[in-house]
Amino acid sequence: MPPPPVPVRSVQAKALPRIQKKWKWTGDLFMDVSRNRAERVCEVLISEATDPQPNGLRFSICLSGENIRLSAFHELSCLHTFLLASTRVQQFAKLGSASDKDADALLQLGIFMQKRSYFCFAHLYMDDSSVGLLIIFPTGHEVANSLLKVPPTLASNTPLQVALVPWELTTREFRAENWKSRSPTVEHQLDPAFAAILEADGRSVATQRRFYQALHILTFPKAIYDFMSQKQSPRPYCIWYAPADTTQSGTIGYETLLLREILSTCTQAKDMGYKADVRVVFVHVGALATLHGLPFLVAWRNKRPELRFLTYGRHPSVPRERWGVREIYLIGGVVTFTPSAIIEGHGMLFRRIKDVAEHPLWDCYVLPSVVAMVAKLTCQGGHPLRVYDEGNFVYEDLLKAIEQGSVALLHAPAILRDAPPKGDPSLLWTRWMIRLPSMNARQILEECLRIAAEQFANTSDAELPVAVEKEIARDLLRMQMQPVMMDNYRRFVVLKGRSDTYFQEDRCPGIEVTTLSKLDFRDDFFTTRTDSAQ
To answer: What domains can be seen in the chain, in order of their start residue?
Structure first.
C-alpha cells in the first residue's frame, strides 16, 4: 500500500526588491531683483544627486517647495566667508532645465556666472527655520571646485551645479547666542613658508622683531619676499599709498611703514618714487581708488609687461577678502569704443571685434549710451526703432554682435563711493544683467535707447557727444576697480575717432587711448597662430 502523500505547505512567492526611484526636483527658479521682489528665470530640474553624508541633510528632506528664490550674485572669491559658518557639503547635484524651451536661458545664466566667477544661493528651510544654503555655482570652475571639494564623478553635462551646505549652528543655538564663545579672534597670519627662516635665525628673531612683526601683520607671502630679495637683478619699486594710509598730519601710515621695513631687508630693492622706471608697484588697497593718478600708469601697463602690481594692507572701503598682498593687473586687456570710433571706422570696427573675440586674453564691450548715440547720429532724425523695423538701420551688425556675445553690452556696477541711484544699485545692475542674454537685436537697441534717455535727460544735443565721452571715461575707471577686472586684465583701452575731443592723455589719466588702426595687443598670439597654420 503506497504511503499517504506528504502535505505540502503553500509557499508565497518572495516579492522582488523594490527599486528605489532616483530623487529629482522640478520647479521655477526666481532671482531677487529688489528686497521684496523676484523675477522668474526659468523652470529647472535638480537631479543626479550624490550620496548624502551619513546622518546628514539631504535634498529630498529640505527641498520640498515649488520654487527656488536665489540671492543676487556674489563673487566666488567670497564663497569661503559663507562656508565659515557651515559644515561640510552634504550633497551635490546637477542643475538643468526642466524643458527644452528653458535650456537656452539656463545656458546663458551659466555662461554669465562662469565668465564673471559668480555664485548665488537660496536658503533652505525646515519647520520655518533656515537649516542651510543651496549654493549654485558654474560647472568646472576652479575656485568652486577647490572650496566646495566637488567630486569628479558629479555630472558635468550642465552649465550649473548645486551643493547642499548646512549651517554649523541650528537656529535655536544662534538665537541663544551660544555661538559667541566659539568665535575665534581674527588674527594676522604669517606665511608658513617662513618657518624655516625662523628656525634658522633662532635667537636673532628677537633682534629682528619689527621685521617679523611686519611679515605677520601684512601677511606678506614668502614668494613675493623671495622675488624682492633676488640678488641677480635690481628690484626698484614705488609705493602708492595716499591718502588711504596716511596720518592726520599727512605722514606715512603704519602699514606702509611696515612694508618699507620688509623691503629694507632686500638689498637689491630700492624705492625710486614715481618718476623713474620701476619693477614693482605696491598699492595700498585703500588707495586703489586714486591709482589712476599714478604717473606712467598707462605706459607701464602697456609697454612694461614684466612690471608687477601688488596690493597690500587693509581698509574699510575695500571688501575684507581683498585685503592683504595680492597681484593685480596681470595680463590681457579690455577694449571699449566711442561713438565716433564706431561710425568713422565701420569696416575696421568689425575686424577689431573679431580679433578681440578670438584673443583668449582680451574682451571688448560697449556702453548702452554709446549704442544709443550711434543710432541717433546715423538715423538722420528718424526714430531708431522705426528705422530698424524698416530694415535700414546701418549698425544692425553691431546689435547682432552684442546678441551673439562677440561684444558685451555692459556698464560697470556701482561701487561704494558712487552716489546711489534710486533703488539698490547692485540689485538694479543684477536685474539688468539677467535680462540681457534673452534680448534679441531689436530689444537691445530699445534697451540702449531707454537707458540713454534716462542718463542724459537734462543734457542738450550740443553737449551730448562730450557727455557720452565723459561717461565712457568714468565707466572705464570704475571697471578698473572691480575685483574680477583687476584679477583678469591689465590694460583698459578706449578706441576713439578723429572727431573725439575729450580723450586726451592729460584729461584721462589711468585710461589708455588709441584708435582702431593703432590697437596693439603687444603679444605674438596672432603671429604664432598664423605660423602654426602654415
So the answer is: 25-179 (2.40.290.20), 192-328 (3.40.1010), 333-529 (no CATH)
